[in-house]
Amino acid sequence: MTTELIQAPRGAGAPAAGAPAERRRVVGLACRNCGRPEPLGPAYVCPACLGPLEVAYDRDLVRATASREAIEARPAGLWRYLEFLPLDTPPARGLAVGSSPLVAADRRGRALGVERLWVKDDTRNPSLSFKDRAVAIAAATASEFGIDTLACASTGNLAGATAAAAAALGIPAYVFIPADLEPAKVDHALAYGATVVPIEGTYDDVNRLCLEVVDETGWGFVNVNLRPFYAEGSKTLAFEVAEGLGWRSPDVIVAPIASGALFTKVARGFAELADAGLIERRPIRFVGAQPAGCAPVATAWASGATVVEPVRAPDTFVRSLAIGNPADGRYALEVARSSGGSIESIDDTRTAAAIRELAALEGIFAETAGGVTIGAVEAARRRGVIRDGDEVVALVTGNGLKTPDARLLGIDPAAPARAGQPGLAPPIPPRLAAFEAWLEGASS
Ligand SMILES: Cc1ncc(COP(=O)(O)O)c(C=O)c1O
Ligand SMILES: [Zn+2]
Fold first, then answer.
1. Distance CA 439, CA 444 (A)
2. 257 in ligand 1 pocket by Cβ < 6 Å?
3. N or C: which end of the chain has fewer CB within 10 A?
């Protein structure tokens, strides 16, 4: 299997006559910038122009083989979209990732002036974030390449996802993180048995170090040398949204941006479904969401710049999106601009309020990236990018239990708690009368 993959032919050549079975969907890697083909393998940078490498498919073969019926007949999980993913068969081992609920968030939507709001609730993956999707593809590909150690540079959620995937495969994981990450995220990775490597510095410092470590060790860094495969995982959010809506696309997608991989690949996912004839090709406006304290792509969007200027010192409690120098920032900018979308920058107090409101109105507890995304729905509605009657899907990508203190920002932690307010009231004795008195006080 491994040799076969590595020796896959370059370019989307036609199959030998009479031998369609030998034709491969995945034909190699290709540079996103200059189009140069590269052989399939753990590689991520174009030797000609240093642009990012991506998986290249035989599009005709995908169109000929993908169908709604085949997908619907398969078990739940992200492998049901196999024709659009870089593996020939689903892996024999791995976590159950994907098929998360698409929730009609009517109450939250009405409060924002958005009549038709859906929340894609990706708080429920095995390690409680959408990163399980990206890691599922990277880990399965790593196995095919014979790589036996997983690693990553993480802003938090990827650490848990990589650690969990490695545990499920029975291989070691090394996760590199900024040393001052939220304790719940660090603990989560440790719980799966990963080696956590805390680095003094920002995520961008961590990432730079990992570029060197990858050359030194040959480990499978899911978001470095396995990045072309990792990035494909985010397309499955688009596939699930389209299938969940009855095989069609919404008017607007709202999604968080850190490196920009998720945002750009969700756009790609919808385009691939339309190319394959599984959905009608309709315009979708893509709205990106960044925290104000680390918003390099939103800043470029607002100023009309074509270059994304890095943020050297991110200052936000949205640690999961605190990437100052986003690898796919330029492409995310293009997606927002060319689709008539926007990139919104949301301050932390608003993000905390959005976390509380989504939890209280819809029963979905998001981590900080989800708060930024719901904040961006509101901002894009105010800006007019979301219009009357639009159908909007917000991608809520991580679970609030990973950032348990975030929802309290902007409210007085010392204030006595009442029903409907955050925080915990002082304990009461286990007697009905005490409870009744407490309820009386809480509702007054
Ligand atoms: C919960 C969550 N949502 C969204 C993102 C953004 O992902 P990307 O780096 O693909 O833009 C991250 C990145 O870490 C994340 O942790
Ligand atoms: Zn190139």
1. 9
2. yes
3. C
